[in-house]
Task: structure prediction
Amino acid sequence: PASAGNFEGCASTVNGTFFARLVSEEGVCACGSSLAAPLFSLASFAYAELGRVNYSPTGSSVGKSSVALGLVDFGGTDSLVKQETYDAVPDLRLFPILAAAAVPIVNLPELEDAGLRLVLSRELLPLIFMGDIYRWDEPAILALQDEGVRDLLVNLTNPFIHVVVRDDGSGTTEIFTDALSGFSAEFAARIGALDVLDWCEDGMENLTCPESVGGSDNVDPTDPGSALFYA
Result:
């Protein structure tokens, strides 16, 4: 039987494919990258006199698939569009509009309170995100630090690294894992550069995998444990 739906208030669907547009011709309906969402929310004010702009931060994977299916006027993505998508939708075009950085952030208030800076290398980051290094007092981490940071790390009440990641379709995940794959051949072989992956597989039991959009919300400043997160 046919299954009807409503995609983000932009279009009605039948069995997941476009059926009818729900917004006026003067309006713009879009979805995708949560990283770019603040920019698009500003656009809704800038173009208010011309028509309504509705942008839903669904994640890059949904943005790319939705524009290919004709469900939205445009899709935002942090990662590139694959050639097979261009082949399937010849009119599709990709325009760069925003430059931003995908970086790991650390929730170690003890460091901030002491005015100290943690150093992590390209060699260490893949090991942390594979779960092979999961303590802040790991000798390889301590070897990179100034004396004050070393003393603080070895005396943490909770020395374990709690990694927070995204398991939804994320262009940020893809570009971050692409970087980690470039840093580490082992990471490339075990995980690779993907927009959707299960971080809790392949022996990475130390990772936590909440579903999220706009993942920096997962870093809780009140968490007594140490948290490493990629944005």
Observations:
- Confidence is low (pLDDT under 50) at residues 210-218, 224-231.
- The longest helix spans residues 171-183.
- The radius of gyration is 21 Å.
- The beta strands are 4-7, 11-14, 17-21, 28-32, 53-56, 74-76, 104-107, 161-164, 207-208, 226-230.
